[in-house]
Amino acid sequence: MEKFPSCIFLLLLTLTTHNLIIPSLSLKCNPAEKEALLKIKKELGSPTKLSSWNPTTDCCSHKWEGVLCDSQTYRVNKLDLFDLNLPKHVQIPPSIFTNLPFINFLSIDNIPNLVGTIPPSISKLTKLEVLIISGTSISGEIPNSLSQIKTLTSILLTDNKLTGTIPATLSSLPDVFSIYFNGNQLTGTIPESYGSLPKSFMCFGLAENRLTGKIPASLANLNLVLVNLSGNALEGDASVLFGSKKRTVELSLDKNMLSFDIGKVGLPKNLTLLNLSKNKIYGALPKGLTKLKVLSDFNVSYNNLCGEIPIGGKLQNFNESSYAHNKCLCGSPLRHCKT
């Protein structure tokens, strides 16, 4: 599964290069924050990768692995913990949430021995813009307290062991750009309230969970660039995610139980990826598919589609596997239609 989806990669790049300090010979690190970082290192079992966190050096010198400070205030504003080989199972050090109040970027990535839950005290990070917790053994529910951090723009809680339902309260975040909960064990339905997410909201990923129920009709209000709801047990009508005037580039709905007439949906002109395989979708493929000039990844196999595959555009560039196992779909690249 893609670790950092393309639609937020530029945002991450901007945040990781903004307000970085120029190394200085003078000690600028805030003493309380330095103490907190050293405590975090100890609570993580002093992994080798954090050997640069040396109490005799300046934590704002740009030499401490994964630590960056604001160029004006010299307060720690970025903490990037990744690929740490922890000697034993440990929980997220609480000092991250209670003693580093100026963090706007927090990434905890690929640390399998990290266990426990995401504590409600995460709401104390009142300046947090980007939250990434990925590739860990963190479990439990996604805390509702995330909705109290009004500065949040991106939330990526992917490939963990999170359970429970999706917090409906996240729809109140005024500037949220992306939400990704892919690769967990979340249950329940997609909240109806997500139809009121702000216009800034562009990227939505809930793939490979245990979600059920119908896709809320309110999601028709969204104009998303990337949608990935694959690998759940969602059912019913997904046509609310389509539209000829939408800016959608990637739409993945495969491996669900969705059932709607594909022939009646509008198609975003900039679609590069459309995966509807392994559902119960019916009808004839719309001729509008032939007008999608940048379509490069397409799969409608294992559905109940009928009729002739439209000729033109990119459709004949895809092999038989993209169309196979439908009710009565025919035409190139499948068998000829009977006259």
From TrEMBL:
Gene3D superfamilies in the record: Ribonuclease Inhibitor
Every Leucine-rich repeat-containing N-terminal plant-type domain range: 31-70
Membrane topology per record: Peripheral membrane protein
Pfam families, per database record: LRR_1, LRRNT_2
Secretion signal span: 1-26
Keyword Membrane in record: yes
PANTHER family the UniProt entry points to: POLYGALACTURONASE INHIBITOR, POLYGALACTURONASE INHIBITOR 1
Listed name of the protein: Polygalacturonase inhibitor
Originating organism: Medicago truncatula (Barrel medic)
